[in-house]
Specification:
Layout lengths: L9 H17 L4 E8 L2 E9 L12 E2 L4 H14 L23 H5 L25 H5 L16 H15 L3 H10 L19 E3 L6 E3 L9 H4 L2 E2 L1 H13 L7 H7 L13 E3 L4 E5 L2 E10 L2 E8 L4 E7 L7 H15 L15 H4 L3 E5 L2 E7 L5 E5 L7 E5 L5 E3 L8 E6 L5 E6 L2 E3 L25
Antiparallel strand pairs: 1-2, 1-11, 3-6, 4-5, 7-8, 8-9, 9-10, 10-11, 12-13, 13-14, 14-15, 15-16, 16-17, 17-18, 18-19
């Protein structure tokens, strides 16, 4: 089954549907739906079911588990962008009395606050939230297992605290804030806290026999910000587009880029994955993907985005375990990228040019290392090693005539142009690194020329 909005080549669609079929069959899922978005727009969806003729579609709800955490993180970043909190603030500043209040908001977002992974027994995912009416019931007697800020340790309880933080700052329930500030602006009308028809039923599949048992769908109470939501492949395509480009009604492009910037070290033994602010960042099939996985009894889910290619994939299934949704979603991205690579944007001249900036272009040297400097739009510049190895960076222009590094070794550092009193260009200063027009320019500051005799040959 393919959706009516399919816009890919027939051969690509068949490869995508084949991957969905393999995931459903090998994962022994009662049903499984996959979808692909390209450049923020739905491009394809397909599904398989154990009941022929009753396949789900892109409008069928599944529970998405920990994908909910990304929605919660967006709401926290909104509070930061409005100036209502700072990510470096301790939790105690807004939510006192939790016994873990020294952890910062950023640490909670990146799972580096040192909190336990789960709440005390009974298992919160399979029991009603009414069993944990207070935050103390969620955190238990030993909420901290590691020193805050020292390592990544995934924590469901940390996102419970973030949900309560949102409620404390907004003065409204998390569910209401989510609906008004995120779901409604993005048009995600089929993403809800409780299931709405048409929705899939959650099943457990016996590990040694092809038989199933229904799973309960509990209201998670205080744990809801960590895993409550139900959604559809179509809605998650919209969400993937937002996470790629941002939406000023919800969160800026700069803030969503910040979310997918690594903020925590990789867990020991997993050097192909790390975590940003509410987003997982992984290497799959030789590409960097961001997004999130999710699971709750009866359901598994995954959303991956390849920002470089503008391709997102969603896989949803209604089985407690078995379907490898993360691997399947990564493969859906790979199939599209390999079969239909993105066309580059047409080259166009810059809209305007400043002669003073044009003077900066060309070759520069830090010591004996050669770099190239070129102009980009909005008075930005790029500095890159001509050898292909070294410390390069992109820079954003400031209003004071300097630039700020955006990535790499020089991220956050200031680049400024140094001129003589009469205006002649001398060198570039980048965080105390002096770049000159010739190697070890004797007229420049350190690392300018040192030896008075300058360059020389050596006798054979």
């Amino acid at each position: 089954m393919t959706s009516p909005f399919a816009s890919l080549l027939p051969s690509t669609e068949r490869a995508l549907l084949h991957r969905v079929a393999v995931a459903q069959s090998e994962g022994r899922a009662p049903s499984l739906v996959g979808a692909v978005a390209r450049d923020g727009r739905p491009a394809w969806s397909g599904a398989r079911s154990c009941t022929e003729g009753h396949e789900p579609d892109a409008d069928t709800q599944y529970r998405i588990g920990s994908l909910t955490k990304t929605f919660t993180a967006v709401l926290v970043l909104r509070l930061r962008d409005e100036g209502l909190l700072d990510l470096s603030d301790p939790l105690d500043k807004y939510l006192p009395g939790t016994a873990v209040g020294g952890a910062t908001i950023a640490q909670l977002l990146s799972h580096s606050a040192g909190l336990a992974a789960e709440s005390p027994a009974p298992w919160w995912e399979r029991t009603p939230g009414s069993l944990r009416p207070e935050l103390a019931d969620v955190l238990g007697e030993q909420p901290l297992l590691h020193p805050s800020g020292r390592r990544h340790h995934y924590s469901n309880t940390g996102y419970t605290l973030l949900g309560s933080l949102i409620e404390a700052v907004r003065g409204k329930p998390w569910k209401e804030v989510l609906r008004r500030e995120l779901l409604e602006p993005l048009g995600m009308h089929r993403t809800t806290c409780d299931p709405q028809d048409p929705h899939a039923r959650g099943w457990a599949v016996h590990p040694w026999a092809d038989v199933v048992m229904p799973e309960p769908a509990e209201d998670l109470g205080l744990m809801a910000p960590a895993g409550q939501l139900w959604s559809t492949a179509a809605d998650l395509c919209r969400f993937a587009g937002f996470l790629t480009e941002g939406d000023e009604r919800v969160l800026s492009a700069d803030s969503v880029r910040e979310m997918r910037t690594p903020s925590a070290p990789a867990e020991p033994g997993d050097w192909e994955g790390t975590y940003g602010l509410g987003l997982q960042i992984v290497r799959r099939n030789g590409r960097t993907l961001f997004g999130h996985t999710g699971s709750l009894p009866g359901f598994v889910a995954c959303l991956w985005v390849d920002a470089e290619e503008g391709v997102a994939a969603i896989v949803l299934a209604n089985a407690t375990s078995g379907p490898t949704t993360a691997a399947a979603a990564a493969d859906l991205v790979r199939i599209v990228v390999e079969a239909e690579p993105r066309f580059p944007e047409p080259w166009r001249p810059m809209s305007e040019v400043d002669e003073a900036l044009l003077e900066l272009t060309g070759a520069w040297y830090w010591g004996t290392s050669a770099f190239g400097l070129k102009l980009v739009e909005d008075r930005g510049i790029e500095l890159y090693p001509l050898s292909g190895q070294g410390r390069g960076s992109r820079f954003r222009a400031r209003t004071d005539g300097t630039w700020t590094g955006l990535d790499g070794y020089f991220a956050g550092e200031t680049l400024r142009v140094v001129r003589r009193p009469e205006g002649r260009l001398i060198h570039l200063d980048l965080g105390s690194f002096v770049f000159t027009r010739e190697p070890y320019d004797p007229a420049a500051e350190v690392p300018g020329g040192v030896d008075e005799e300058g360059w020389r040959g050596l006798p054979l």
